[in-house]
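Pinned message: reference record for RNA polymerase sigma-70 region 2 domain-containing protein
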Amino acid sequence: MTSIDDDTIHDAYVRLFPLLVSKCSRMLADPEEARDVAQETFTRIWAERVNLRDPRALTAWLYRTSTHLAVDRYRDPWRKERSDLPDWEHLRTDAADPEVRTHWRRLLTHLRSTIPRRELEVAILSRLDGLTHVEIAEITGDGERTVRRLLAQFEERVQRFQQRSER
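Predicted structure (tokens):
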């Protein structure tokens, strides 16, 4: 952690905030909610005096913090339901496609209360952000093996949910 002056934080805001909003928009369907999470993440940069000069550490911190905050939104019992059941075929295609991300958000909305937090975070980083296991391990501080295990558990939950919803 390091001291941050007003010019440094302003420059970081101009550079990072649009990227953060984009990342949050991949996780949350509501643009206002995505901006709120991005804003809260950025506020924490200031509050926690995050080192803005180490791009690798900053990127990991931004992904970790914004994902945690988005998971909190998914798990909020007062959060309004906004989606139908996901289209299972779309979930098996490339996550870079915006339509696929929409289906993943729907799935996460339905599963939010049944998935453990760490598993949900890893699934978001993988399915919505398109990160590799190595990148996820670096961001979460877990080993690659743990990331693979968490994703496998998530896939099992998705399959069980799919089977129940098709009945």
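Pinned by admin. Summary line: The radius of gyration is 16 Å.
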